[in-house]
Amino acid sequence: MNEPNTSTRLRPIPALIFASRWLQLPLYLGLIVAQCVYVFQFWQELVHLLDIVWKVGRINETEIMLVVLGLIDVVMIANLLIMVIVGGYETFVSRLYLEGHPDQPEWLSHVNASVLKVKLATAIIGISSIHLLKTFINAEHLSQHVIMWQVLIHLTFLVSALAISATDRLILQPEKLKARHD
Predict the structure, then answer these.
(1) CA–CA gap between residue 84 and residue 80 (Å, rounded)
(2) How much is the pLDDT for 38?
(3) Residue 111: which residues within 8 A CB-CB, separation 6 or more?
């Protein structure tokens, strides 16, 4: 485990600017509270599903699918929160020093702002896909206008993720070429 080097002293203004990164700590703590809300929501939905099955005895497959997709949606949003909390803290605030820890997420070993952006974009596409699937399953109860807008929003997320990925490739290309040249 690499220990931090605390021997370097900064001048007052650079030290203040560098220390300002700790202002993000309350934001990450707030996201942890939001994660707790999602855990509570997940259990409420699961209990609701079990209650329906217990009382009614049999529910139709579409209803089960919609509730399960809702559960998956909550889990995917919770995963997104973890990526933002852990990856953002590690990237922008301070190191967690998890090297060698058996529970260290695999992706954390190579996380940076660029990787985090792409991971977040793909997670948002996954969440949007779940919402779109729920919409298609429940299409008979929705207007074409609502369905059209949800598809357009999903396509916007896809195009945005592709643009982020392409931009990152363009930015990293000179670095890769320089590394090969050296």
Answers:
(1) 6
(2) 94
(3) 87, 90, 91, 119
Which residue from 92, 76, 78, 81 is spatially nearest to 19, judged by alpha carbons? 92
Which whole number is the average pLDDT over 148-166? 94
Asked, for residue 54, whether it belongs to a domain, the answer is: yes
How many Å from the N-terminal Cα to the C-terminal Cα in the chain? 29
The pTM of the full predicted model, rounded to 2 decimals, is 0.74
d(CA 138, CA 54): 23
Side-chain-side CA neighbours of residue 78 (13 Å): 15
- Contact between residue 151 and residue 132 where contact means Cβ atoms under 8 Å apart: yes
Which amino acid does the sequence have at 132? L
DSSP 2: P
Structural domain tally of the chain? 2
Place of tokens 């939905």: 45
DSSP string of 149-167, one letter each residue:
HHHHHHHHHHHHHHHHHHH
94 and 30 part of one domain: yes
H or E element that contains 128: helix 113-137
Q: Are residues 59 and 95 in the same domain?
A: yes
Residue type, 162: L
Per-residue pLDDT tens digits for 14-44: 999 999 999 999 999 999 999 999 999 999 9
Within 10 Å of residue 12's Cβ, how many Cβ atoms?
Answer: 7
